[in-house]
Amino acid sequence: MDFIHIVLTIFAALDVAVWALWRFLARKIWLAAAWPARVLFHGFFVLQLGFVALVLRAVHGGSTTHFSTPLLYLVYLWHLLLAPLFLVGCALGLTGSGALSLFRWARPRSAKEAAPAVASGVSRRQFLGTVAALAPPLLAGSLTLFAAGQSSNFRIRRYTIRLHDLPKALDGMTITHLSDLHVGPFTSPEFLLSVVNAVNELKADLNVFTGDLINNDPEYMLRAIDALRAMEPEIVAIKGNHDQNTRRFSFEENLRAGGVCLLVNQTATRTVRGVPVQLLGLRWDGPQNWQDRGDERRLRTSVDELLKQRNPAAYPILLAHHPHAWDYCGDIALTLSGHTHGGQLMLNEDHGFGPAMFRYWTGLYRRPIGPGQPNQTLVVSNGIGNWFPLRVNAPAEIVHLTLQRG
After folding, report:
1. Which CATH architecture is the domain 155-405 placed in?
2. Residue 228 and residue 261: Cα distance in Å, rounded?
3. In Å, how far are 73, 145, 186, 202, 391 from 142, measured between CA atoms?
4. What does pTM read for this prediction?
C-alpha cells in the first residue's frame, strides 16, 4: 500500500470513528435534537467519505479529480485538524462516561434523582441534542470561512542586517526573499498576480526563492513558472521537499526549460553595483520521513559539497530550503531559508508547531562564527503559500532585506 492509500484509509477511518463515537456519546439526547440538525450531521460525514471515495477513484484511474476551493478547505481542515481533535474528545468522553456510570451504579439514588422534572428535562435534551448534532459541521464550516478569509493576505516583512564582511559597494544592497509558494489548488491566479506585483514594486537588487514552488501536482507547473518569470530582476530559485515529491515529470527540466534559474547544489553569480555576488543553492536533503527527522547527515554532506564551489572573489549568500543547514554553513555570513511556514499553527511566538519541529522557525537569528568573532545571520521566511489552508500566528509573508556594512 503506497502513501496516498495509507492517507485515504486514515481519513476514512477517522470519519467513521468520529461519526459513530460522537453519535454514541450523544445517544441519550439524540432523538430530542431538531431533525434538520441530525440530517446536517449525517450529511456532513457522507460528504467527507464521498470525498475520500472520489480521490481513491481518481488515484486508481490515473486522473486528477478537481474540487472547489471551499470544499478542499473544508476537507483539509476536517481531516487534518478537527477530526483528530474530535476523536480525542470522544475518547475522553467515553472515559468520563464510563467513570460516571460506575459512580452512579455504586451510589444509592434518591427519589428526587429517580424522577426528574419532565418539562425542564425535555427542553434541555432538545438543546443539547441539537448542539451535539451541529458541532462537527458548524465548527468545520466556521473554520473554513476563517481560513478562506485569510487565504489572500500576506505581509512585507522588512529587516536591516549588518554584515561584517559586506563589501563597501554593497552597503545598502536589497534582497527580496520569497519562499514556499506551494502553487496548487489553494492558489488563485489573482493571488499569484498580487505576489508578483508586490515583488516587483520592491525593486530589490536581488530576488531569491528558497523552495516549494508547487504543492506536488505538475498541472500547476506552468502557472508557477510564469509567476517566477514575471518577477524583476530575474529570480534565482532552489528546490524544496514538495518540489522533490512530484511524480510523472521532471521538476528540474521543466523549470529550466521555462527559463528559470534553478540551483541544485550549484551556484550562480550576479553582479550587483559592480561586485560579484555568489548565490549558493542547496539541494533538498532534509529529513525524508518522521523516523529520520533527527538525522541530518545528508544535509550536512550536501552543504559541504556546495561550499567547495565557493568563489573567493565573490560575496557568498547561502540559499537553503531547510533552516537547519545554517548549522553547517561554515563562515558564510548570510543564509536564507524557508520550509517551516513560521510554524503554521502557533499559540504565540514561542509555542506551537514551529519550535516543536525546528531549531529555527521564523524571522532573524544571529550567532558569532566563533569566540570573539563577527556574527552570522539566518533569515527564515514564513513563506507565502500554503499546503494546509490555515495559519495561526504565522502570517504569510514576503521578506525584504537591506544589507549594511559593519
Report:
1. 4-Layer Sandwich (3.60)
2. 10
3. 11, 5, 18, 35, 15
4. 0.87
Q: What is the pLDDT along the chain (406 residues), one digit of tens a residue?
A: 566 788 889 999 999 999 999 988 888 787 788 889 999 999 999 999 999 898 888 766 655 556 778 888 999 999 999 999 999 988 887 776 555 555 555 555 554 454 444 444 446 778 888 898 999 999 999 999 999 888 889 999 999 999 999 999 999 999 999 999 999 988 999 999 999 999 999 999 999 999 999 988 888 999 999 999 999 999 999 999 999 865 556 889 889 999 999 999 999 999 999 999 999 999 997 655 444 455 788 999 999 999 999 999 999 999 999 999 999 999 999 999 999 999 999 999 899 999 999 999 999 999 998 776 788 999 999 999 988 999 999 999 999 999 999 8
CB 285 within 8 A of CB 298: yes
In the chain, % helix, strand, coil (3-state, to 5) comes to 50, 20, 35
Per-domain residue ranges for the chain? Answer: 3-149, 155-405
